[in-house]
Write a structure and sequence with these properties.
heterodimer, A: two-stranded antiparallel ribbon, 14 helices, 6 strands, B: 516 residues, mainly alpha, two-stranded antiparallel ribbon, globular, disordered C terminus
Chain lengths: 375, 516
């Protein structure tokens, strides 16, 4: 297999892993983010928490795996993005650290102050990651200021405040609305009683907000200064981002869409699925499955617009990271592809088994009967 | 403090903190598997009660391990960006495979372990428990393959076109002897931690005269498993010593505070006061032959001392400067084969030349004085290593004695008769953590000034983010982690105190908190 094909496969796998994270951890992040709003008393909140209780831990591994796989397959991207977005990453880490502890510790004591504190921690811990990841995606389109010296040491000066610009914040809201919709769809599917009622009420609003914001980002993207390669790409070349030339100021980011009409199915599909998740909300399982397609199609929409860029540089456009110059060596990509082919199906199989074992709705009666062991 | 010191401080804090929870997870998961196996085989419900009681404590600890592990996976990128670029091609793969093979397994089956007692058959639940234990142990395997490579970077080469290390032989990375020795040593230390935990808490119950049958059974499992593990820790620790002696001679010499080369067979210093300034150790008490046997497994191989190793480093720096000159020439003329051949001939010492970067950016022009200073910088902190190592080894022998005594009393069915033993067991509760943290200090602080031994100096590995950002995150993590630790210990104590057959202490906690 050629280096070029491997890089494209790993670019697709990057999408699969980010999509896996957004779909799987997305619904329990959304559930946590909605916790305060769908649960008005302790039992209701426990219903919401226990709907993800047995599975959120496995879901969060998608995030860890995403980090590890980017490290292994796109080390330059891992290094540049995580150190460049330093404080933003710190916020995400803090949120994802508080979640495991919150889920586990919350119901271990009956004190209302203790529980209320953890409820808020879980709620904020559910809001921050989708917001920050959306903002990060927004900044990918705008480019961030960084370059490299001859040793390929990144030189950058990225402040947290410069990341929080209007376009990026709009992307953050798209992401947040999407995750809230997905969380509401999950609660609608997995719980009964008032929690389900409130989630079902929220679902269309979240879906509509997602749709409107998503279209807004699309319109803005068509006017944003895009990036384009102006030197011939070297898809089989060594992973060294220096020595190419990139134009910053290309008209918009929709070039790939103009060249390949079929790509329009991705954003249209995302909007359609969000609409269906909302319309089908009485058929809860179908609604959740529609909702689960939205994060995957949203990420695919963004990826298709960016290709071949991974992380454009606004200060030194030539140093932008692309699919052709930021990957691991051919051998490492091959080894990692083998690992994914062997292990991912196994992971999916036992994950499916666990969801089957834990199938069925979570109700108030179950929580009250099982008060000791439930979250 | 500059960014290098801050980044190192943050890594040290977060890694040592993470390792408060990891060894208990490793050990308890296996102990839970053993107890549940007995339950399934005998059908006696007391064994299921044991799994549930120790399982709750396991869960509280596991959550903290997961939470603090998140930081570890991303910190290489946030704080060690040049490291991530320079070795990600090799180091990233075991980390990613750890996620695929281990984290998913443990995180998925931990859900079934806690939530599916009524939804699975006895045998199915037992399998879930063992898969959970297997997942935690796989995770240790892969992270230690990654860490072993930092100590002994095999199976990789420098690629000048990408300015980084790349994999040439992945099997060599997997089967790295340092990684194998470290893996067994580390998981055994985890098993000892889990066993001491169960032993100490059970001893607490027996000292109070409560839950006698429960505590004695728990203790029997703990002392048997603990004795085997403690023996394994020491034996495999010796294997670690041997592999270190092959590759990281400076680390061995620093652990021994051995300034000058010992003629074969080298003796082992039991006590001494190492003095960095004068390169001497005062008040030495030595045991002949022992070090030679540990480090070289022979009686006729000398063990090189610090001063001799600094001399070797000096030569390697000079040789590495040739490689660096060639590297600069390649940048000028990328297609000229001559400098590439020159680089190839000296590339093994390129990392040593990079030690000069802390003194000047244009290292090809380094003075003789700077080269000597760079060579001297290869000496790690000798007194810290010397004492950390001795304390760790002393604790290892203490655990063997403790478990051996427990094993003997258990065989004679008199576990609850010797209050001195129960008190000793209870007081030993913090010791495995002390030993484990000291072990990491020896392994990682002893690797300095390298982040990848002989390949990349630690100071070069950092990100170029503002030092203020790192200061902020150091403070943030410290405050955040301290608060979590308080909550964690509070919950553990609340759940241990009433013991297994009491109602959960929900209300007790409520009253105590309300009284605040």
């Amino acid at each position: 297999m050629s280096y070029e094909i491997l890089r494209i496969i790993w670019w697709l796998l990057l999408g699969v892993l980010l999509g896996g994270f957004a779909i799987m951890d997305g619904f329990d992040l959304g559930t946590a983010a909605l916790l305060i709003f769908v649960g008005r008393n302790d039992v209701e909140r426990r219903v919401a928490i226990n709907s993800v209780g047995p599975v959120w831990e496995g879901n969060q591994v998608w995030f860890i795996l995403g980090g590890g796989a980017i490290f292994a397959a796109w080390p330059a991207l891992y290094a540049a993005s995580f150190s460049g977005f330093y404080l933003a990453m710190f916020l995400v880490l803090a949120a994802l650290i508080v979640r495991p502890v919150g889920f586990k510790f919350r119901s271990k004591l009956e004190n209302p102050r203790w529980r209320s504190w953890w409820d808020w921690a879980l709620c904020i811990g559910g809001i921050v990651p989708p917001l920050v990841f959306g903002v990060a995606f927004g900044n990918l389109f705008e480019g961030v200021p960084f370059g490299f010296d001859a040793d390929l040491r990144m030189q950058s000066d990225i402040s947290l405040w410069s990341l929080l610009n209007p376009f990026a914040l709009l992307c953050g809201l798209v992401s947040l609305a999407m995750i809230l919709m997905h969380g509401a769809a999950w609660l609608n599917y997995k719980t009964r009683g008032p929690v389900q009622d409130r989630a079902r009420l929220l679902l269309p609003y979240a879906a509509a907000a997602y749709g409107a914001l998503f279209v807004g980002v699309g319109l803005w993207l068509s006017r944003l200064d895009g990036y384009s390669l102006t030197s011939p790409a070297a898809p089989d070349g060594p992973s060294n981002p220096l020595g190419k030339s990139v134009l910053h100021g290309a008209p918009g980011w929709l070039g790939n869409y103009e060249n390949h009409d079929l790509l329009w199915l991705l954003p249209l599909g995302a909007l359609f699925m969000a609409m269906m998740a909302s319309l089908a909300r009485k058929r809860t399982a179908a609604s959740f499955l529609f909702s689960a397609c939205v994060p995957a199609l949203t990420i695919a929409t963004a990826g298709a617009a960016l290709f071949p860029f991974l992380l454009p540089s606004s200060s030194h456009p030539g140093a932008s990271l692309t699919v052709w110059d930021a990957s691991s060596s051919k051998l490492t990509l091959e080894i990692m592809l083998g690992a994914v082919i062997i292990f991912l199906p196994i992971v999916l199989a036992y994950t499916a088994f666990v969801y089957r074992v834990m199938r069925g709705p979570v109700t108030r009666q179950q929580i009250e009967a099982d008060s000791k062991t439930s979250y | 403090m500059d960014i290098v010191e801050l980044s190192r401080l943050q890594f040290a804090i977060t890694a040592l903190y993470h390792f408060i929870f990891v060894p208990l997870t490793l050990g308890l998961s296996i102990l839970l598997g053993i107890m549940e196996t007995v339950y399934v085989m005998t059908g006696k419900t007391i064994w299921r009660d044991m799994v549930k009681f120790w399982g709750v404590l396991f869960g509280i600890n596991f959550a903290m391990g997961v939470a603090t592990g998140v930081t570890m996976e991303f910190q290489f990128g946030t704080n060690w960006a040049y490291y991530a670029h320079y070795v990600g091609d090799v180091f990233g793969a075991p980390l990613a495979i750890e996620g695929l093979m281990a984290f998913f397994l443990e995180a998925t089956f931990v859900g079934l372990f806690f939530f599916a007692w009524d939804r699975l058959t006895k045998l199915q639940h037992l399998i879930a428990t063992w898969l959970l234990a297997l997942g935690t142990n796989f995770s240790a395997l892969w992270i230690l393959i990654a860490n072993g490579w930092m100590q002994y970077p095999v199976g990789a080469h420098f690629n000048v076109d990408t300015m980084r290390m790349e994999v040439s032989d992945f099997m060599a990375v997997l089967l790295n002897p340092v990684a194998q020795a470290k893996f067994v040593h580390t998981v055994s230390a985890g098993y000892v931690t889990g066993s001491v935990f169960v032993l100490a808490v059970s001893a607490y119950f027996l000292l109070r005269g409560r839950h006698i049958a429960f505590a004695k059974r728990s203790m029997t499992v703990a002392v048997s498993f603990g004795l085997a593990s403690a023996l394994s820790v020491v034996v495999l620790g010796d294997e670690s010593g041997y592999t270190t002696g092959v590759n990281q001679k400076m680390k061995i010499a620093a652990i021994e505070a051995m300034w000058n080369t010992e003629p074969a067979p080298a003796s082992f210093t039991v006590f001494g006061l190492p003095d960095i300034a004068s390169h001497t150790t005062r008040l030495e008490v030595k045991v002949p032959w022992v070090l030679g046997l540990i480090a070289t497994r022979s009686l006729d191989t000398p063990v090189p001392g610090i001063n001799e190793l600094v001399g070797l480093a000096h030569d390697r720096i000079k040789d590495g400067m040739v490689a660096y000159q060639a590297l600069l020439a390649i940048r000028q003329a990328p297609h000229d084969p001559a400098p590439r051949a020159l680089l190839q001939a000296h590339v093994d010492n390129l990392g040593y030349a990079l030690l000069l970067k802390q003194f000047r950016p244009d290292i090809q022009n380094a003075t003789e004085g700077e080269i000597a200073a760079a060579a001297a910088s290869t000496i790690p902190n000798v007194p810290v290593l010397f004492w950390s190592f001795r304390l760790m080894v002393g604790l290892g022998f203490w655990f063997i004695a403790l478990f051996a005594a427990g094993f003997w009393f258990s065989a004679k069915l008199e576990l609850d008769r010797h209050r001195w033993f129960l008190k000793a067991a209870l007081l030993s509760l913090p010791l495995p953590w002390v030993a484990a943290e000291l072990g990491w200090i020896v392994a990682e602080y002893g690797r300095q000034p390298w982040v990848i031994e002989g390949v990349l100096p630690t100071a070069l590995g950092v990100s170029t983010t503002a030092a203020g950002n790192v200061l902020f995150s150091v403070i943030g993590f410290s405050v955040f982690y301290s608060a979590l630790l308080v909550a964690d210990l509070y919950l553990l104590i609340k759940y241990i105190r009433p013991g297994p057959d009491a109602e959960p202490p929900l209300r007790a906690g409520s009253a105590a908190l309300a009284a605040e």
